[in-house]
Amino acid sequence: MPRASRLVAGTVLLAVAAIVGCGPLPFAATVSGPDETATALGATGYKAFFGIQHTHVAENGDDGQGTLAEAYAYAQNKAKLDFLGISSHSHMITDAGYAKMKLAAQQVTQPGEFVALLAQEWSSISKGGHINIFEANERCPVPNGDWATFYTNWLPAHPEVAWAQFNHPHPTNKLEFGGEAFSPVAPGPAAVSALSTFSAMALLNGPGKYEGDDMRGQPDEWDRGANGLNYEEEYKEFLNRGWRIGAVGDQDNHVKNWGLASPTRTGVWATSLTKTNLIAAFKARRTYATFDPNLAFWFSLDGKPMGSEIKTGKEIAVAIQAKDPDTVFTRIELYGDTDGMGGRPASLIKKVAVGKKSATWSFKIPAPTEEGYYFAKLVYGDGTAWAWTSPIWVSR
Ligand SMILES: [Zn+2]
Ligand SMILES: [Zn+2]
Fold first, then answer.
1. Which ligand is nearest to the CA of 125?
2. What protein residues have CB closer than 5 angstroms to ion ligand 1?
């Protein structure tokens, strides 16, 4: 069946779906050759790129295995990633080591082929958790756990930092990521600077010590979060605290299997594979976390892509589109937090059963009275595999 007819048939099967004009969808650029579906839906020019941005090596004193060169070559040639971030622990490496990381990232980046992200993992789990800092011009010398100095002094002094992300979140620790003193619920200069820099949280992480290269590693005990599966509950908690963070996935590889410990990836919607475009996409939160290595997953409100902040009228036009070459989706879900920061966290608003490898789901929902945010989730396989888009923040 031609793709257009298949999709139309699939859409009809989605009983609750009502097709409305919801602005451009991105899939024209994700397939090669003629694609009547994409033409019918319109196109944004975005393409999905896949990679991970939190991994380790043994070089320069980091606690993983292998060298920078080995990791980049493995990620590009064996794991077939479009991008890789190596995030050595900042307190384990020296300034000279960081300079070597910067050089290595510059040398292996080839526009259109592969992008190496310069990263570092700062602080320690016992002192408020780990964050990843991207593209800083120096190794962050702030001592582990000194969140006050980090947020108040170091971060504002480093406008070159492209973005930062929260790794393996644990909100039960009151000091996680500096605690409420530096979160958006306590706005001050430090919180404002942090709010504009932090644009991601890992909903999937690890398993960092899994030895295999068959993508069969499941999140280990540390990475299963409050629901025993992933960091979805933690993500909702930090979103509800006011962080405007997108959804990403990581493997935290401490073994020579960069990209192949598990199927987890970050999907990034960018116009082409250059470092500039990837950075712009991470900053704009045009990302999704996926436990499937080649899932294309799109979410827009009023035609604006995931990660956006929009003003809307009484109704919001929702469009969710998913496509995978080899995996049948079980269902799609829409989550929303309609009372904004504080109060209740995001909860399930609507869901639809799919049973296919591609789906388009479009409908309208009433807008929140003042402000809120929404994100899409996909459940596939036997129900223990997922993907989440970044939210879209809405105000009237
Ligand atoms: Zn970590
Ligand atoms: Zn790590």
1. 1
2. 130, 167
The ligand minimizing its distance to the Cα of 130 is 1
User: How do residues 275-290 score in pLDDT, each as one tens digit?
Assistant: 999 999 999 999 999 9
**125, 21: one domain:** no
Contact in structure between 333 and 375 (CB atoms under 8 Å): no
Ligand nearest to the CA of 167: 1
Ligand whose nearest atom lies closest to the CA of 128: 1
pLDDT per position as a tens digit, 216-268: 998 788 888 999 999 999 999 999 999 999 999 999 999 999 999 999 999 99
Please check whether residues 87 and 197 belong to one and the same domain. yes
Distance from the alpha carbon of residue 54 to the mean position of ligand 1, in angstroms: 8
182-225 residue pLDDT tens? 888 777 777 777 889 999 999 999 999 999 999 999 878 888 89
CA of 134 from ligand 1 middle (Å) equals: 14
Q: Total structural domains in the chain?
A: 2
Angstrom distance (rounded) from CA 394 to CA 99: 41
Compute the distance between CA of residue 161 and CA of residue 118 in angstroms, rounded to an integer: 10
Place of tokens 């991470």: 282
Q: Is 67 exposed, middle or buried (0-12, 13-18, 19+ CB in 10 A)?
A: middle
> Do both 13 and 162 map to the same domain?
no
Query: Ligand 1 mean position to 167 CA, how many Å?
Result: 6
pTM, two decimal places: 0.90
pLDDT band at 42 (very low <50, low <70, confident <90, very high): very low
